[in-house]
Protein backbone atom coordinates (compact mmCIF):
# COMPACT_ATOMS: atom_id res chain seq x y z
CA UNK A 1 0.00 0.00 0.00
CA UNK A 2 1.34 3.44 -0.92
CA UNK A 3 0.22 6.97 -0.24
CA UNK A 4 -0.65 8.60 -3.57
CA UNK A 5 1.12 11.87 -2.77
CA UNK A 6 4.28 9.96 -1.82
CA UNK A 7 4.05 8.10 -5.14
CA UNK A 8 3.67 11.30 -7.11
CA UNK A 9 6.59 12.91 -5.31
CA UNK A 10 8.80 9.84 -5.84
CA UNK A 11 7.89 9.89 -9.54
CA UNK A 12 8.81 13.57 -9.69
CA UNK A 13 5.37 14.65 -10.89
CA UNK A 14 3.64 17.99 -10.33
CA UNK A 15 0.05 17.99 -9.09
CA UNK A 16 -2.11 20.76 -10.54
CA UNK A 17 -4.98 20.28 -8.08
CA UNK A 18 -5.73 17.95 -5.18
CA UNK A 19 -8.70 16.90 -3.11
CA UNK A 20 -8.69 14.43 -0.22
CA UNK A 21 -6.12 11.67 0.25
CA UNK A 22 -5.67 8.06 -0.76
CA UNK A 23 -3.67 4.93 0.08
CA UNK A 24 -3.59 2.47 -2.84
CA UNK A 25 -2.30 -0.99 -3.66
CA UNK A 26 -2.99 -0.93 -7.44
CA UNK A 27 -3.86 1.36 -10.34
CA UNK A 28 -6.37 0.61 -13.11
CA UNK A 29 -7.91 2.58 -15.97
CA UNK A 30 -10.81 0.12 -16.33
CA UNK A 31 -13.65 0.99 -13.96
CA UNK A 32 -14.94 -2.59 -14.24
CA UNK A 33 -11.81 -3.91 -12.53
CA UNK A 34 -11.72 -1.44 -9.62
CA UNK A 35 -11.43 -3.10 -6.20
CA UNK A 36 -11.28 -1.63 -2.71
CA UNK A 37 -7.81 -0.14 -2.39
CA UNK A 38 -7.50 0.65 -6.11
CA UNK A 39 -6.62 3.98 -7.60
CA UNK A 40 -8.64 4.77 -10.73
CA UNK A 41 -7.11 6.49 -13.75
CA UNK A 42 -9.51 8.51 -15.92
CA UNK A 43 -8.12 8.24 -19.46
CA UNK A 44 -8.56 10.87 -22.20
CA UNK A 45 -10.72 9.52 -25.03
CA UNK A 46 -12.13 10.76 -28.29
CA UNK A 47 -15.42 8.99 -27.58
CA UNK A 48 -16.33 9.88 -24.00
CA UNK A 49 -15.25 12.51 -21.46
CA UNK A 50 -12.61 11.25 -19.01
CA UNK A 51 -15.11 11.78 -16.18
CA UNK A 52 -17.57 9.22 -17.59
CA UNK A 53 -16.58 6.27 -15.40
CA UNK A 54 -15.72 8.04 -12.15
CA UNK A 55 -19.06 7.08 -10.58
CA UNK A 56 -18.61 3.40 -11.44
CA UNK A 57 -15.06 3.50 -10.06
CA UNK A 58 -16.32 4.99 -6.79
CA UNK A 59 -18.97 2.26 -6.50
CA UNK A 60 -16.23 -0.36 -7.06
CA UNK A 61 -14.27 0.93 -4.07
CA UNK A 62 -11.75 3.29 -5.66
CA UNK A 63 -9.70 5.16 -3.06
CA UNK A 64 -8.72 8.03 -5.34
CA UNK A 65 -8.87 9.14 -8.98
CA UNK A 66 -6.09 10.47 -11.19
CA UNK A 67 -7.59 12.76 -13.84
CA UNK A 68 -6.32 14.66 -16.91
CA UNK A 69 -8.63 17.71 -16.97
CA UNK A 70 -10.31 20.20 -14.60
CA UNK A 71 -13.82 19.02 -15.53
CA UNK A 72 -13.03 15.48 -14.38
CA UNK A 73 -11.44 16.83 -11.21
CA UNK A 74 -14.54 18.87 -10.37
CA UNK A 75 -16.76 15.86 -11.10
CA UNK A 76 -14.71 13.65 -8.76
CA UNK A 77 -14.94 16.28 -6.00
CA UNK A 78 -18.71 16.49 -6.48
CA UNK A 79 -18.94 12.70 -6.12
CA UNK A 80 -16.87 12.76 -2.95
CA UNK A 81 -14.03 10.83 -4.60
CA UNK A 82 -10.52 12.08 -3.69
CA UNK A 83 -8.65 13.18 -6.82
CA UNK A 84 -5.38 14.46 -8.25
CA UNK A 85 -5.21 16.53 -11.43
CA UNK A 86 -2.08 15.69 -13.44
CA UNK A 87 -0.52 17.42 -16.48
CA UNK A 88 -2.02 16.08 -19.71
CA UNK A 89 -0.49 18.08 -22.54
CA UNK A 90 0.51 15.80 -25.41
CA UNK A 91 1.72 12.42 -24.12
CA UNK A 92 2.62 13.80 -20.67
CA UNK A 93 -0.28 12.01 -19.00
CA UNK A 94 0.85 8.55 -20.15
CA UNK A 95 4.42 9.40 -19.19
CA UNK A 96 3.21 10.35 -15.72
CA UNK A 97 1.21 7.13 -15.39
CA UNK A 98 4.25 5.07 -16.36
CA UNK A 99 6.36 6.70 -13.66
CA UNK A 100 3.64 6.26 -11.03
CA UNK A 101 3.16 2.58 -11.89
CA UNK A 102 6.91 1.97 -11.77
CA UNK A 103 7.05 3.41 -8.26
CA UNK A 104 3.88 1.66 -7.08
CA UNK A 105 4.85 -1.80 -8.30
CA UNK A 106 8.56 -1.65 -7.49
CA UNK A 107 9.63 -1.68 -11.17
CA UNK A 108 9.05 -5.30 -12.25
CA UNK A 109 10.86 -4.47 -15.53
CA UNK A 110 14.06 -4.69 -13.46
CA UNK A 111 13.24 -8.30 -12.56
CA UNK A 112 11.55 -9.42 -15.80
CA UNK A 113 13.77 -8.84 -18.84
CA UNK A 114 11.60 -7.02 -21.39
CA UNK A 115 12.18 -7.58 -25.11
CA UNK A 116 10.45 -4.91 -27.22
CA UNK A 117 9.75 -5.61 -30.90
CA UNK A 118 8.40 -3.08 -33.39
CA UNK A 119 7.77 -2.99 -37.16
CA UNK A 120 4.84 -2.81 -39.56
CA UNK A 121 4.61 -6.56 -40.07
CA UNK A 122 6.28 -9.47 -38.35
CA UNK A 123 6.31 -8.25 -34.75
CA UNK A 124 3.51 -10.61 -33.63
CA UNK A 125 5.15 -13.69 -35.16
CA UNK A 126 8.59 -12.72 -33.92
CA UNK A 127 7.50 -11.97 -30.35
CA UNK A 128 5.41 -15.16 -30.17
CA UNK A 129 8.22 -17.35 -31.51
CA UNK A 130 10.79 -15.78 -29.15
CA UNK A 131 8.59 -16.49 -26.11
CA UNK A 132 7.85 -20.02 -27.31
CA UNK A 133 11.52 -20.75 -28.07
CA UNK A 134 12.66 -19.52 -24.67
CA UNK A 135 10.09 -21.72 -22.93
CA UNK A 136 11.23 -24.70 -24.99
CA UNK A 137 14.74 -24.41 -23.55
CA UNK A 138 13.56 -23.88 -19.99
CA UNK A 139 13.43 -20.08 -19.73
CA UNK A 140 10.05 -18.99 -18.30
CA UNK A 141 8.86 -16.38 -20.81
CA UNK A 142 5.69 -14.42 -21.46
CA UNK A 143 4.20 -12.78 -24.54
CA UNK A 144 2.28 -9.48 -24.84
CA UNK A 145 0.90 -8.12 -28.10
CA UNK A 146 -1.76 -8.39 -30.79
CA UNK A 147 -2.73 -11.91 -29.72
CA UNK A 148 -3.31 -10.71 -26.13
CA UNK A 149 -0.99 -11.98 -23.43
CA UNK A 150 0.30 -15.39 -22.47
CA UNK A 151 2.40 -15.96 -19.36
CA UNK A 152 2.64 -19.71 -19.84
CA UNK A 153 -0.77 -20.76 -18.54
CA UNK A 154 -2.92 -19.94 -21.58
CA UNK A 155 -3.56 -16.99 -23.87
CA UNK A 156 -5.97 -14.17 -23.00
CA UNK A 157 -7.25 -11.59 -25.49
CA UNK A 158 -6.26 -7.92 -25.17
CA UNK A 159 -7.72 -4.67 -26.47
CA UNK A 160 -4.66 -3.26 -28.24
CA UNK A 161 -1.33 -4.46 -29.62
CA UNK A 162 0.35 -2.48 -26.82
CA UNK A 163 -1.90 -1.81 -23.81
CA UNK A 164 -2.30 1.43 -21.88
CA UNK A 165 0.37 2.22 -19.27
CA UNK A 166 -1.73 0.66 -16.49
CA UNK A 167 -2.25 -2.47 -18.61
CA UNK A 168 1.46 -2.79 -19.41
CA UNK A 169 2.54 -2.49 -15.78
CA UNK A 170 -0.19 -4.86 -14.58
CA UNK A 171 1.08 -7.41 -17.13
CA UNK A 172 4.64 -6.94 -15.87
CA UNK A 173 3.47 -7.50 -12.31
CA UNK A 174 1.59 -10.63 -13.43
CA UNK A 175 4.70 -11.84 -15.29
CA UNK A 176 6.79 -11.37 -12.16
CA UNK A 177 4.23 -13.20 -10.02
CA UNK A 178 4.02 -16.02 -12.59
CA UNK A 179 7.78 -16.50 -12.36
CA UNK A 180 8.57 -15.22 -15.86
CA UNK A 181 12.12 -14.04 -16.34
CA UNK A 182 11.42 -12.63 -19.83
CA UNK A 183 8.49 -10.81 -21.48
CA UNK A 184 8.51 -10.53 -25.29
CA UNK A 185 6.39 -7.48 -26.07
CA UNK A 186 5.10 -5.99 -29.32
CA UNK A 187 5.47 -2.20 -29.29
CA UNK A 188 3.21 -0.37 -31.75
CA UNK A 189 3.93 3.01 -33.32
CA UNK A 190 0.80 4.42 -31.64
CA UNK A 191 2.08 3.28 -28.25
CA UNK A 192 5.48 4.88 -28.88
CA UNK A 193 4.06 8.26 -29.90
CA UNK A 194 1.65 8.16 -26.96
CA UNK A 195 4.45 7.12 -24.56
CA UNK A 196 2.55 4.11 -23.26
CA UNK A 197 5.82 2.29 -22.50
CA UNK A 198 7.24 5.22 -20.53
CA UNK A 199 9.21 4.05 -17.53
CA UNK A 200 9.67 0.47 -18.75
CA UNK A 201 13.28 -0.69 -18.78
CA UNK A 202 13.97 -2.78 -21.87
CA UNK A 203 16.71 -5.40 -21.97
CA UNK A 204 16.60 -5.72 -25.77
CA UNK A 205 14.78 -3.97 -28.63
CA UNK A 206 14.24 -5.25 -32.18
CA UNK A 207 12.96 -3.99 -35.53
CA UNK A 208 11.36 -6.14 -38.25
CA UNK A 209 10.69 -3.70 -41.11
CA UNK A 210 8.48 -0.79 -42.18
CA UNK A 211 5.92 -0.45 -44.95
CA UNK A 212 2.73 1.50 -45.65
CA UNK A 213 0.31 1.49 -42.71
CA UNK A 214 -1.35 3.75 -40.14
CA UNK A 215 -1.08 6.93 -42.23
CA UNK A 216 -4.54 7.86 -40.95
CA UNK A 217 -2.74 8.44 -37.63
CA UNK A 218 0.83 9.40 -38.55
CA UNK A 219 -0.06 11.22 -41.80
CA UNK A 220 3.31 10.64 -43.50
CA UNK A 221 5.77 7.75 -43.77
CA UNK A 222 8.46 10.02 -42.31
CA UNK A 223 6.44 10.54 -39.14
CA UNK A 224 5.57 6.84 -39.02
CA UNK A 225 9.27 5.93 -39.22
CA UNK A 226 10.12 8.52 -36.57
CA UNK A 227 7.55 6.90 -34.27
CA UNK A 228 9.19 3.49 -34.69
CA UNK A 229 12.64 4.97 -34.07
CA UNK A 230 11.57 6.14 -30.61
CA UNK A 231 11.94 2.57 -29.34
CA UNK A 232 15.66 2.68 -30.20
CA UNK A 233 16.37 6.25 -29.07
CA UNK A 234 14.11 7.74 -26.40
CA UNK A 235 12.95 4.45 -24.87
CA UNK A 236 16.44 2.90 -24.94
CA UNK A 237 17.98 6.01 -23.39
CA UNK A 238 15.43 5.95 -20.55
CA UNK A 239 16.02 2.27 -19.75
CA UNK A 240 18.03 1.69 -16.59
CA UNK A 241 20.50 -0.55 -18.41
CA UNK A 242 21.50 0.15 -22.02
CA UNK A 243 19.59 -2.37 -24.19
CA UNK A 244 20.90 -4.15 -27.25
CA UNK A 245 19.17 -3.10 -30.49
CA UNK A 246 18.55 -5.88 -33.04
CA UNK A 247 18.24 -4.44 -36.58
CA UNK A 248 17.95 -5.92 -40.12
CA UNK A 249 21.25 -5.59 -41.97
CA UNK A 250 19.96 -4.65 -45.43
CA UNK A 251 17.22 -2.22 -44.32
CA UNK A 252 18.09 1.39 -45.30
CA UNK A 253 16.08 2.84 -42.42
CA UNK A 254 17.72 0.57 -39.85
CA UNK A 255 21.13 1.39 -41.32
CA UNK A 256 20.38 5.09 -40.94
CA UNK A 257 19.26 4.63 -37.35
CA UNK A 258 22.31 2.56 -36.40
CA UNK A 259 24.58 5.55 -37.08
CA UNK A 260 23.34 7.42 -34.01
CA UNK A 261 21.76 4.92 -31.62
CA UNK A 262 22.90 5.29 -28.00
CA UNK A 263 23.55 1.58 -27.37
CA UNK A 264 25.06 -1.52 -29.03
CA UNK A 265 23.55 -2.96 -32.24
CA UNK A 266 23.30 -6.57 -33.43
CA UNK A 267 22.41 -7.07 -37.11
CA UNK A 268 20.57 -9.95 -38.79
CA UNK A 269 19.19 -10.90 -42.17
CA UNK A 270 22.00 -11.73 -44.60
CA UNK A 271 25.66 -12.58 -45.19
CA UNK A 272 27.88 -10.41 -43.06
CA UNK A 273 25.25 -9.92 -40.36
CA UNK A 274 26.14 -10.50 -36.70
CA UNK A 275 23.41 -13.16 -36.70
CA UNK A 276 23.16 -14.83 -40.12
CA UNK A 277 20.40 -17.43 -40.40
CA UNK A 278 20.69 -19.58 -43.53
CA UNK A 279 17.33 -20.68 -44.93
CA UNK A 280 17.66 -23.96 -46.85
CA UNK A 281 14.08 -25.07 -47.66
CA UNK A 282 10.70 -23.33 -47.43
CA UNK A 283 7.29 -25.05 -47.39
CA UNK A 284 3.77 -23.94 -46.54
CA UNK A 285 4.01 -25.53 -43.09
CA UNK A 286 7.72 -25.43 -42.22
CA UNK A 287 11.12 -23.85 -42.85
CA UNK A 288 14.43 -25.73 -42.73
CA UNK A 289 17.33 -23.47 -41.75
CA UNK A 290 20.77 -23.32 -40.15
CA UNK A 291 21.74 -21.08 -37.27
CA UNK A 292 24.62 -18.63 -37.38
CA UNK A 293 26.75 -21.38 -35.86
CA UNK A 294 25.73 -23.94 -38.51
CA UNK A 295 23.21 -26.10 -36.62
CA UNK A 296 20.33 -27.26 -38.83
CA UNK A 297 16.77 -27.16 -37.49
CA UNK A 298 13.16 -27.18 -38.73
CA UNK A 299 10.66 -24.50 -37.70
CA UNK A 300 6.87 -24.78 -37.74
CA UNK A 301 6.72 -21.40 -39.49
CA UNK A 302 5.86 -21.68 -43.17
CA UNK A 303 6.23 -19.36 -46.15
CA UNK A 304 9.19 -17.43 -47.50
CA UNK A 305 8.15 -14.15 -45.87
CA UNK A 306 8.47 -15.83 -42.47
CA UNK A 307 12.18 -16.48 -43.07
CA UNK A 308 12.83 -12.84 -42.07
CA UNK A 309 10.75 -13.23 -38.91
CA UNK A 310 12.66 -16.40 -38.06
CA UNK A 311 15.96 -14.59 -38.64
CA UNK A 312 14.87 -11.76 -36.34
CA UNK A 313 13.83 -14.25 -33.64
CA UNK A 314 17.16 -16.08 -33.93
CA UNK A 315 19.04 -12.78 -33.56
CA UNK A 316 17.00 -11.83 -30.49
CA UNK A 317 17.76 -15.19 -28.89
CA UNK A 318 21.45 -14.75 -29.72
CA UNK A 319 21.38 -11.25 -28.24
CA UNK A 320 19.63 -12.61 -25.16
CA UNK A 321 22.60 -14.91 -24.70
CA UNK A 322 21.38 -18.36 -25.72
CA UNK A 323 24.07 -20.68 -27.09
CA UNK A 324 23.68 -21.81 -30.69
CA UNK A 325 22.39 -25.30 -29.86
CA UNK A 326 19.63 -23.88 -27.65
CA UNK A 327 18.63 -21.37 -30.34
CA UNK A 328 18.17 -24.27 -32.78
CA UNK A 329 16.28 -26.37 -30.23
CA UNK A 330 14.07 -23.50 -29.15
CA UNK A 331 13.12 -22.43 -32.67
CA UNK A 332 12.43 -26.02 -33.72
CA UNK A 333 10.04 -26.54 -30.78
CA UNK A 334 8.25 -23.18 -30.88
CA UNK A 335 4.52 -23.67 -31.48
CA UNK A 336 2.79 -22.13 -34.53
CA UNK A 337 1.35 -18.64 -34.26
CA UNK A 338 -2.48 -18.59 -34.10
CA UNK A 339 -3.98 -17.01 -37.21
CA UNK A 340 -0.65 -16.46 -38.96
CA UNK A 341 -0.13 -18.53 -42.12
CA UNK A 342 -2.43 -21.10 -40.52
CA UNK A 343 -3.66 -23.95 -42.73
CA UNK A 344 -6.99 -25.61 -41.97
CA UNK A 345 -7.32 -29.40 -42.26
CA UNK A 346 -9.89 -30.69 -44.73
CA UNK A 347 -10.67 -33.64 -47.01
CA UNK A 348 -11.39 -31.54 -50.10
CA UNK A 349 -7.85 -31.56 -51.46
CA UNK A 350 -7.58 -27.77 -51.15
CA UNK A 351 -5.35 -25.54 -49.06
CA UNK A 352 -7.27 -23.11 -46.85
CA UNK A 353 -4.98 -20.48 -45.33
CA UNK A 354 -5.96 -18.00 -42.58
CA UNK A 355 -3.67 -15.01 -42.06
CA UNK A 356 -3.73 -11.60 -40.40
CA UNK A 357 -2.19 -9.77 -43.40
CA UNK A 358 -3.86 -6.37 -43.46
CA UNK A 359 -1.30 -4.16 -45.20
CA UNK A 360 -0.37 -4.18 -48.92
CA UNK A 361 3.16 -5.38 -48.15
CA UNK A 362 1.97 -8.19 -45.87
CA UNK A 363 -0.67 -9.31 -48.38
CA UNK A 364 1.85 -9.38 -51.22
CA UNK A 365 4.28 -11.49 -49.18
CA UNK A 366 1.50 -13.81 -48.04
CA UNK A 367 0.22 -14.47 -51.56
CA UNK A 368 3.73 -14.82 -52.96
CA UNK A 369 4.41 -17.46 -50.31
CA UNK A 370 1.24 -19.33 -51.25
CA UNK A 371 2.21 -19.13 -54.95
CA UNK A 372 5.57 -20.71 -54.07
CA UNK A 373 3.66 -23.93 -53.33
CA UNK A 374 2.37 -24.03 -56.95
CA UNK A 375 -1.38 -24.40 -56.33
CA UNK A 376 -3.66 -24.82 -59.34
CA UNK A 377 -5.40 -21.53 -58.49
CA UNK A 378 -5.30 -18.96 -55.70
CA UNK A 379 -8.64 -17.63 -54.47
CA UNK A 380 -8.28 -14.68 -52.11
CA UNK A 381 -10.84 -13.24 -49.70
CA UNK A 382 -9.83 -9.85 -48.33
CA UNK A 383 -11.24 -6.55 -47.11
CA UNK A 384 -10.05 -3.39 -45.37
CA UNK A 385 -10.84 -2.11 -41.90
CA UNK A 386 -12.90 0.99 -41.29
CA UNK A 387 -11.62 4.09 -39.46
CA UNK A 388 -8.13 3.24 -40.67
CA UNK A 389 -5.80 4.55 -43.38
CA UNK A 390 -7.96 4.73 -46.55
CA UNK A 391 -4.95 5.21 -48.85
CA UNK A 392 -4.06 1.51 -48.60
CA UNK A 393 -7.49 0.27 -49.74
CA UNK A 394 -6.88 0.30 -53.52
CA UNK A 395 -3.33 -0.98 -52.89
CA UNK A 396 -4.73 -3.98 -51.02
CA UNK A 397 -7.15 -4.71 -53.85
CA UNK A 398 -4.41 -4.39 -56.47
CA UNK A 399 -2.03 -6.64 -54.50
CA UNK A 400 -4.72 -9.32 -54.29
CA UNK A 401 -5.70 -9.07 -57.97
CA UNK A 402 -2.13 -9.31 -59.23
CA UNK A 403 -1.42 -12.46 -57.21
CA UNK A 404 -4.75 -14.30 -57.35
CA UNK A 405 -6.80 -16.11 -59.95
CA UNK A 406 -9.99 -14.93 -58.28
CA UNK A 407 -10.55 -12.21 -55.68
CA UNK A 408 -13.56 -11.86 -53.43
CA UNK A 409 -13.63 -8.47 -51.73
CA UNK A 410 -15.58 -8.25 -48.50
CA UNK A 411 -15.84 -6.57 -45.10
CA UNK A 412 -13.10 -6.68 -42.50
CA UNK A 413 -13.82 -4.65 -39.35
CA UNK A 414 -15.91 -1.78 -40.76
CA UNK A 415 -16.14 -0.02 -37.39
CA UNK A 416 -18.08 3.24 -37.86
CA UNK A 417 -17.69 3.37 -41.67
CA UNK A 418 -20.14 2.09 -44.27
CA UNK A 419 -18.79 -1.31 -45.49
CA UNK A 420 -20.07 -0.60 -49.02
CA UNK A 421 -18.08 2.65 -49.09
CA UNK A 422 -14.91 0.82 -48.00
CA UNK A 423 -15.36 -1.75 -50.79
CA UNK A 424 -15.96 0.99 -53.35
CA UNK A 425 -12.71 2.69 -52.32
CA UNK A 426 -10.90 -0.63 -52.74
CA UNK A 427 -12.17 -1.40 -56.24
CA UNK A 428 -12.94 1.98 -57.85
CA UNK A 429 -9.40 2.53 -59.25
CA UNK A 430 -9.11 -1.01 -60.66
CA UNK A 431 -10.67 -0.50 -64.07
CA UNK A 432 -13.32 -2.47 -65.98
CA UNK A 433 -10.99 -5.33 -66.90
CA UNK A 434 -10.47 -6.40 -63.28
CA UNK A 435 -12.22 -9.65 -62.37
CA UNK A 436 -13.52 -10.04 -58.85
CA UNK A 437 -16.62 -10.60 -56.76
CA UNK A 438 -17.98 -8.39 -53.99
CA UNK A 439 -19.84 -9.72 -50.96
CA UNK A 440 -20.42 -7.38 -48.01
CA UNK A 441 -21.17 -10.31 -45.71
CA UNK A 442 -17.81 -11.87 -44.79
CA UNK A 443 -19.38 -15.25 -44.04
CA UNK A 444 -20.96 -15.32 -47.49
CA UNK A 445 -17.61 -14.37 -49.05
CA UNK A 446 -15.76 -17.19 -47.25
CA UNK A 447 -18.42 -19.76 -48.12
CA UNK A 448 -18.36 -18.63 -51.76
CA UNK A 449 -14.55 -18.99 -51.96
CA UNK A 450 -14.61 -22.51 -50.56
CA UNK A 451 -17.55 -23.44 -52.79
CA UNK A 452 -15.59 -22.34 -55.86
CA UNK A 453 -12.38 -24.15 -54.88
CA UNK A 454 -11.39 -27.33 -56.69
CA UNK A 455 -8.80 -29.94 -55.63
CA UNK A 456 -5.34 -28.40 -55.93
CA UNK A 457 -6.55 -24.83 -55.30
CA UNK A 458 -5.54 -22.58 -52.41
CA UNK A 459 -8.07 -20.36 -50.62
CA UNK A 460 -6.52 -17.46 -48.69
CA UNK A 461 -8.56 -15.68 -46.01
CA UNK A 462 -6.63 -12.51 -45.26
CA UNK A 463 -6.98 -9.68 -42.78
CA UNK A 464 -8.39 -11.03 -39.53
CA UNK A 465 -6.26 -14.03 -38.60
CA UNK A 466 -6.70 -14.94 -34.94
CA UNK A 467 -9.55 -12.48 -34.32
CA UNK A 468 -12.77 -14.00 -33.03
CA UNK A 469 -14.90 -10.93 -33.61
CA UNK A 470 -15.93 -8.36 -36.20
CA UNK A 471 -16.10 -4.72 -35.13
CA UNK A 472 -19.28 -3.10 -36.45
CA UNK A 473 -19.87 0.41 -35.12
CA UNK A 474 -18.43 0.23 -31.61
CA UNK A 475 -19.53 -3.37 -31.03
CA UNK A 476 -17.45 -6.53 -31.21
CA UNK A 477 -19.69 -9.15 -32.78
CA UNK A 478 -18.65 -12.83 -32.61
CA UNK A 479 -16.95 -13.90 -35.85
CA UNK A 480 -14.01 -16.13 -36.72
CA UNK A 481 -12.55 -16.73 -40.17
CA UNK A 482 -11.29 -20.11 -38.95
CA UNK A 483 -14.63 -21.25 -37.54
CA UNK A 484 -16.52 -19.98 -40.58
CA UNK A 485 -14.16 -21.75 -42.99
CA UNK A 486 -14.26 -25.04 -41.06
CA UNK A 487 -18.05 -24.96 -41.09
CA UNK A 488 -18.05 -24.27 -44.83
CA UNK A 489 -15.61 -27.14 -45.39
CA UNK A 490 -17.95 -29.47 -43.51
What are its keywords?
about 500 residues, alpha/beta, UDP-N-acetylmuramoyl-L-alanine:D-glutamate ligase, Protein-Tyrosine Phosphatase, Chain A
Mean pLDDT figure? 93
Main β-sheet: number of strands, strand sense, barrel status? 8 strands, mixed
Hey, roughly how much beta strand do the residues contain?
A: 15-25%
CATH class of the largest domain, please? Alpha Beta
Q: Count of DSSP helices?
A: 18
Q: Whole-number radius of gyration?
A: 23 Å
Would you identify the CATH H-level superfamily of the largest domain?
A: Mur-like, catalytic domain
Spatial shape: globular
- Secondary-structure class: alpha/beta
* Fraction of residues in H or I helices: 25-40%
Give the tally of β-strands. Answer: 26
Distance from N terminus to C terminus (CA atoms, Å) equals 56 Å
Report low-confidence residues grouped into runs of 5 or more. Answer: none
CATH topology annotation of the largest domain:
UDP-N-acetylmuramoyl-L-alanine:D-glutamate ligase
Strand order of the largest sheet: 11-10-9-12-8-13-14-15
- How many separate domains? 3
Examine the secondary-structure arrangement and name the CATH architecture of the largest domain: 3-Layer(aba) Sandwich
Amino acid sequence: MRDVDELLAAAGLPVLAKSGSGIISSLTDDSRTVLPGSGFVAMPSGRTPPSTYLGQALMGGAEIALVPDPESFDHAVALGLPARLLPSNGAAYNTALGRICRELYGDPSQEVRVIGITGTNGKTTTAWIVAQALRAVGVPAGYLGTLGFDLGSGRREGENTTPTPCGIWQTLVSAREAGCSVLAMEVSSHALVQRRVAGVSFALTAFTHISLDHLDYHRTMERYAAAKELLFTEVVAASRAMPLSVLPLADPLAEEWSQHLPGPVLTYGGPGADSDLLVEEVYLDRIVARTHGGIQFQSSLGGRFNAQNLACAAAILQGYGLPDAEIARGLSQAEPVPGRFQTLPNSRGIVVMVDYAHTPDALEKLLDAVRDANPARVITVVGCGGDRDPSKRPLMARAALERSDLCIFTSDNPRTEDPAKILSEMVSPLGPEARYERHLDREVAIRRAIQLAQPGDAVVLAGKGHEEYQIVGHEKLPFSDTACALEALR
